[in-house]
Structures are given as structure tokens and as C-alpha cells.
């Protein structure tokens, strides 16, 4: 397994298998489950030879600048939407094609590589982008491979290869990529670390399907066994209710408070009302900062005092039509939900089931009706994607 390779942000480095699919026509990168992870603001470079890569929450990740230099093209990549050289992340240069017939070579240089005598990474493209291999520096160590219609297995940084893949498309003659091989697939293999918030006993090494009856506040297993339930279906006058397991043991206590324009939920251990037993809090992001038809929740663990970055985040589509739970600000999915009259939840392997159920017990009582026509194209598409995932799981 390769050491961690972080160029843009270590949050995008994941120690488990990830499948990416890049639509080279639209400039959109999808996860294996069909979720949009990254996209560019336009499909071709602007008159200023500039475009921006965003994540699915419209946060700018990198800005590409393309410039023709002598006989080889150059692309510079900056942090966020910056144009400042101090924010340069890396540059990509195309080597003269005379190195070998049918082979294109790209050299990748990090900003501290001033003399550029040796590349930090190199990309070998065979044919008209039929296949591609990414190497660490001038060594034979392979970081990632890509081939249309085939799967290659390797462990490496998600961001490095995602960014390089998109740059390959942008830097290597945009007009020729629209053909029958529109999609590129990359696969890495590894194992997810355990994510335990409430109790590690609720973490199992396989994915778990849970059905939540949102009217009764009861979570059932795939075999219809009751797993968890809340003592009442709505918050009490004290804005408090308790989640129990099937043996009537209190798992967590929810407290709901309205703070300015954001709802705040605090979740405490067991039946406690002592702030020292705080497990996590949930805050709704202001709707003005999110895409219309999408509600975003940030989840902060008790130890995250400054709350500058979330420990988990939830993206809710439409009026709770579907929802995806991510680890931190990364594209790492840990759970998904599709609303089919109740919440059909898929919890990923080694993720705390009780924690995920607690999150969706909060979602069920929220008002997420900030969309037009009670659904949008984006939320409809997302619902279909999640539905496919759950059926295949």
C-alpha cells in the first residue's frame, strides 16, 4: 500500500476502496454510488484560459490556468479560486510527443520544486487517452491507473488522481474527447477505519440496512427486528427526547434549540442532561450559503471546540427525499438514506449504527422544504442514484 499522498488536502486521502467515474464530456466526477463529487464550472477553458473545480457543495477546490509554452502545454493549478502564485499547488507540463509514438507524457511539479530537473509525479498516456498510469516522481512506483472499461486496483490519494485525471482531459486537446469512451473509472482497494461516536459495539464490518419509521420514531433491521426507538414522536415541551435500544436502555438524549436562523441539536450520552456528557451537536448551515433544494447539516463532536471544520456533514436533498452522510469535509460517504415513505438507510461498514440512526432521528423532525415544486432535478437525480445503490447493496 502506498504512503499517504496529499497535494490538495489530506481530508481527501482515504484508506479504503474508492471507485471514481469521470464524465469527460461534462467535466463531472462521480462516486461509485453515482453521487457527484467534483465538477468544473464550464466544460472548456474560458477566454482567460481559466476554470475552477468545485466539490458538490459549490466549494472551490482548485483553479486551473492553461498556457501554451513553446512546444509543450502548461497547466498551473492553484488553491481554491486564487490567482496568487503563493497559492500554487502544482503545475503540469506536456513533454514533446517525440518521446515515443502513441505516448504522451505529463510531468507534474510541486511548488517547492524550483529547478524542475526531476518531476514529483509523472503521467504516461497511451494512445488517444485509451489508458493512463500515474507514477511517483521518476520512480517505477505506480500511484494510480486508469483504463476505459477496465478496473485497476491501487491504494493512493483520491485528490491527486482526481485532479490529475481532470487535468489530462483539459490539457490534452479538449475537442477530441467526445467519443464513445466518455467515462473513465479508477478503483483503489483498502479498508475503512472504524468510526465510533456512541459505542464501538454498534460498528460491524459489513454494510447494514436500517428502516426508520418516521411517524413512530422506530428503527428496524432488515429482518424487521426493532433496534432503536424514541420515547415520543416529537420533541417535548422541554425540547428533549430519548433514543432507546430494544431492551429499553437509553442510548442518547436529544436537546433541540433554535439559535438565530439555524437549528441546533445537542446529543448527550444515555439519559443525561449534563453538558459533560455531550457526544456531538448538529447545526444547520444557513440556507443562503447552500444550493436551492439542498439542506446541509454540520456535525461537531464534543472535542471540536472551535467548530471551524465539521467532523461529519449531512447533505439533504429536497424535502428529505434522500440524504448522504460524509466524514468531515471529505468526499468519504459513511451512510445514505432514501425516503420511501420512511427512511431507508444504508450504513457503511465499520460505521456506528446508533450514531447514524440518531442523526436521522434528528432529520425526521426538521423542516427541509426549501425547494421549488417539492423536488428538483438535482434531488430527483440524487434519489435515483441512492435507490440504485441500496438495491445493489
UniProtKB/TrEMBL annotation:
Top-level taxon of the source organism: Eukaryota
Listed Pfam families: LOR
InterPro entries: LOR (IPR007612), LOR_sf (IPR038595), Tubby-like_C (IPR025659)
PANTHER family recorded: OS07G0230700 PROTEIN, PTHR31087
Family: Belongs to the LOR family.
Protein's name according to its UniProt entry: Protein LURP-one-related 15
Species name: Vigna unguiculata (Cowpea)
Amino acid at each position: 500500500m502506498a504512503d499517504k499522498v496529499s497535494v490538495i488536502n489530506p481530508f481527501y486521502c482515504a484508506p479504503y476502496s474508492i471507485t471514481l467515474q469521470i464524465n469527460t464530456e461534462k467535466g463531472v466526477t462521480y462516486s461509485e454510488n453515482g453521487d457527484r463529487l467534483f465538477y468544473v464550472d464550464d466544460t472548456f477553458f474560458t477566454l482567460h484560459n481559466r476554470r475552477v473545480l468545485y466539490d458538490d457543495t459549490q466549494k472551490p477546490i482548485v483553479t486551473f490556468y492553461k498556457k501554451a509554452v513553446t512546444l509543450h502545454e502548461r497547466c498551473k493549478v492553484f488553491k481554491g479560486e486564487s490567482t496568487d502564485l503563493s497559492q500554487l499547488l502544482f503545475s503540469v507540463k506536456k513533454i514533446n510527443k517525440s518521446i515515443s509514438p502513441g505516448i504522451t507524457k505529463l510531468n507534474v511539479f510541486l511548488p517547492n520544486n524550483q529547478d524542475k530537473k526531476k518531476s514529483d509525479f509523472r503521467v504516461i498516456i497511451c494512445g488517444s487517452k485509451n489508458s493512463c498510469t500515474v507514477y511517483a516522481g521518476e520512480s517505477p512506483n505506480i500511484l494510480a491507473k486508469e483504463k476505459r472499461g477496465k478496473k485497476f486496483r491501487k491504494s493512493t490519494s483520491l485528490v491527486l488522481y482526481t485532479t490529475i485525471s481532470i487535468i489530462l482531459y483539459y490539457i490534452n486537446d479538449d475537442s477530441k474527447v467526445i467519443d464513445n469512451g466518455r467515462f473513465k473509472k479508477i478503483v483503489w482497494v483498502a479498508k475503512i477505519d472504524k468510526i465510533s461516536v456512541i459505542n464501538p459495539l454498534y460498528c460491524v464490518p459489513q454494510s447494514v440496512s436500517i428502516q426508520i419509521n418516521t411517524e413512530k420514531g422506530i428503527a428496524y433491521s432488515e429482518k424487521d427486528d426493532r433496534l432503536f426507538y424514541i420515547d415520543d414522536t416529537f420533541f417535548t415541551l422541554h425540547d428533549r427526547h430519548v433514543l432507546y435500544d430494544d431492551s429499553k436502555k437509553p442510548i442518547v438524549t436529544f436537546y433541540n434549540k433554535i439559535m438565530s436562523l439555524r437549528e441546533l441539536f445537542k446529543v448527550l450520552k444515555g439519559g443525561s442532561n449534563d453538558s459533560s456528557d455531550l457526544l456531538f451537536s448538529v447545526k444547520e448551515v444557513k440556507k443562503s450559503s447552500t444550493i436551492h433544494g439542498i439542506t446541509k447539516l454540520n456535525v461537531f463532536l464534543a472535542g471540536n471546540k472551535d467548530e471551524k471544520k465539521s467532523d461529519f456533514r449531512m447533505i439533504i436533498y429536497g424535502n428529505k427525499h434522500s440524504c448522504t452522510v460524509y466524514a468531515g469535509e471529505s468526499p468519504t460517504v459513511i451512510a445514505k438514506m432514501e425516503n420511501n415513505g420512511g427512511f431507508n438507510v444504508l450504513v457503511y461498514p465499520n460505521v456506528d449504527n446508533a450514531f447514524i440512526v440518531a442523526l436521522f432521528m434528528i432529520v425526521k423532525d426538521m423542516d427541509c422544504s426549501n425547494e421549488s415544486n417539492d423536488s428538483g432535478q438535482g434531488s430527483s437525480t440524487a434519489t435515483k442514484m441512492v435507490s440504485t445503490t441500496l438495491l445493489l447493496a
